[in-house]
Amino acid sequence: MTEALSAAARRIVEAYGAPGVALSILKDGKPIWRECIGVMSTATSKPLHDRATFDIGSISKTFNAATVGMLVEDGKLSWDTRAIDVLPGFRLSDDSLSGHVTMRDLVGQSVGFGEDNIMNYNSRFTRPEIISLIPTLPLRTGFRAECAYQQFGPIIATAIVERLTGMNWEDYVEREVRNRLGMDETWGSYFRMPDRSIACDPHLDLGDGKMSVIPHRNFDALSATGGMTSTLRDAETWFSAFACGGEVDGRRLLKPETIEEMLTPRVAVRRNGIHPQRWISRYEANFVSYGLGWYAHDFAGRRVNEHTGALEGFLVLGCSVPSERVAAVIYTNQHQSPAINPLRYLLLAHAFGIEQKDWDARFKAVAGEAKRAPQMIKGEPYFWRPLGRLEGTKPSQPLADYAGDYVHSSYGSVPVRFENGKLAIDIIGNPCDAEHWHRELFRAVPRDPAIRSYHSQIFFGFEPDPSGRLTRLNIPTIARFTRI
Fold first, then answer.
1. What does the pLDDT look like over 186-218, one tens digit per residue?
2. Which DSSP helix (H) or strand (E) runs through 453?
3. H-run or E-run covering 5
4. Which fold has domain 385-483?
5. CB of 142 within 8 A of CB of 452?
6. What integer pLDDT is reported at residue 370 of this predicted model?
7. What does 281-345 look like in DSSP terms, one character per residue?
8. 444 strand-pairing partners
9. Which ranges in the chain are annotated with CATH 3.40.710.10?
10. From the CB of residue 78, how many other CB atoms can be counted at a distance below 10 Å?
11. What average pLDDT values come out for the chain (484 residues) when binned by 10 residues?
12. In whole angstroms, what separates CA 120 from the centre of its chain?
């Protein structure tokens, strides 16, 4: 049986060209199958092993939610504690909602923030600076209306944990979580690791069809929401703890009732909502929801709690199935690796003892929907773009006249430069090439290929004053900037 499982897993890994994939299935906290395929790095060809570290991206959010759960058990807050009661200066752009936001909303992705602001992924801001910008962010969907996945709510929860513990979040999670579960190979970020020689390299296709090693970027500002690192062995412990009521190998992370509170489905991921791709990737499900730091969906009559983690050069996934006391882990060092989707069902079907199907073919049958799926907010595209293009128009002024520095009281300066006959723009730390779209609207394309994979285009426009002087720069997904 395991030979067939290994062969099927290798076929999927090879089909998507992943450099390295670490896989395991656990029952009652004990591994029943584990396999490491490929290499830690194509640059060194060092074989992948189960104590190599991966950047785990948004699986960090499950750790973030767990630190909140620890404080709930310690009586320092409750899941219904309001953010404003711990952070008196907390405000939303819709201030009428500021006093209603609770810890459930922050870790449960239900405030209504969007992830279309590039600050959500990469910017020059520190974590405190990101938190200070929260009042400028528009709410992109209704409060508690659906799962509106992003980093900002969990970052606010991180600040609350730091306020109540008096500790840096990374120090707290490394001390408390690692000590409780013995996870000595888990770190708050790649740059906190004392020995980086055990880290897998991130890989990305730079356009030549090959997996190339790319540098680790510093995501420490987002460590609690997407910057942690861990190994397959530690991931087995982590996901088993949630599959087994909070305890594994005689070590307890949280009480069973806290675990169940976190895993219970709470807010819907809507098929026709702002994140249809988060449904499509769970293509065998009849429902998809989000709890407190965890997704919940169904497969073969069981509730599967899971989280993915996507950081440039890595895509990882871990599942916990409390009804079966089963956990599964899939870690890859491949950027946006589609392999995790069919591998999820391959491993879970084996764990449940149900018939295997061609999970990859079933995934490919729906994968195209992710690209075609509409992402609209109030009649406008979620990642804002014009709905059409007016052919034959041109800028009202020579391109060189648009060059200058444009500032915002919170976001700082956005420089626009005229270089080699074209415009270039730096959008809060992300250099972009710009091209005219129509009238006074331009399209920016990030130069960095990893950033470009998340934000393929960012539109911005210039607004003249009554005299015709170009005085404003408008980036619809961020803010309006004034020329100096």
1. 999 999 999 999 999 999 999 999 999 999 999
2. helix 449-454
3. helix 2-16
4. Lipocalin (2.40.128)
5. no
6. 60
7. TTTT-S-EEE-SS-EEEEETTEEEEEEEEEETTEEEEEEEETTTTEEEEEEE-STT-TTHHHHHH
8. 434, 458
9. 2-77+144-377
10. 13
11. 94 97 98 98 98 98 98 98 97 98 98 90 90 93 94 97 97 94 97 97 95 95 95 98 98 98 96 83 96 98 98 97 98 97 98 98 85 66 90 94 96 96 96 97 97 94 90 94 96
12. 9
Whole-Å CA distances, 319 to 91, 204, 308:
34, 25, 9
- Tokens 């470009």, residue located: 452
Greatest alpha-carbon span in the chain: 76
- The full length of the chain comes to 484
Task: Tell me where in the chain the CATH 2.40.128.600 domain(s) lie.
Answer: 385-483
Single-letter residue type at 188: G
pTM: 0.96
From CA 61, how far away is CA 224, in angstroms rounded? 6
Among 169, 85, 86, 84, CA closest to 135: 84
Q: CB under 8 Å to 153, separation ≥6 — which residues?
A: 105, 106, 107, 108, 109, 110, 111, 113
Selection from 337, 439, 55, 471 nearest residue 459 by Cα: 439
CA–CA gap between residue 438 and residue 417 (Å, rounded) = 19
The neighbour count for residue 52, using CB atoms within 10 Å, is: 24
Residues with Cβ within 8 Å of 265's Cβ and at least 6 positions away in sequence, in order, are 287, 289, 290, 291, 296, 303
Predicted pLDDT of residue 200:
98
Distance CA(242)–CA(411), nearest Å, equals 39
CA neighbours within 13 Å on the CB side: how many for 228? Answer: 29
Contact by Cβ (8 Å): 323, 314: no
The phi, psi pair for 59, rounded to 5°, reads -60, -20
Q: What is the spatial distance between Cα 63 and Cα 254, in angstroms, rounded to a whole number?
A: 12
Q: Which CATH architecture has domain 2-77+144-377?
A: 3-Layer(aba) Sandwich (3.40)
Nearest alpha carbon to residue 308 among 277, 325, 331, 288: 331
CB atoms within 10 A of CB 71: 18
Task: Give the 3-state secondary structure of residue 213.
Answer: strand
Those residues whose C-beta lies under 8 Å from the C-beta of residue 95, and which sit 6 or more positions away, are none
Q: Among all chains, which residue has been given the structure tokens 């449904």?
A: 279
Residue 358 one-letter amino acid? D
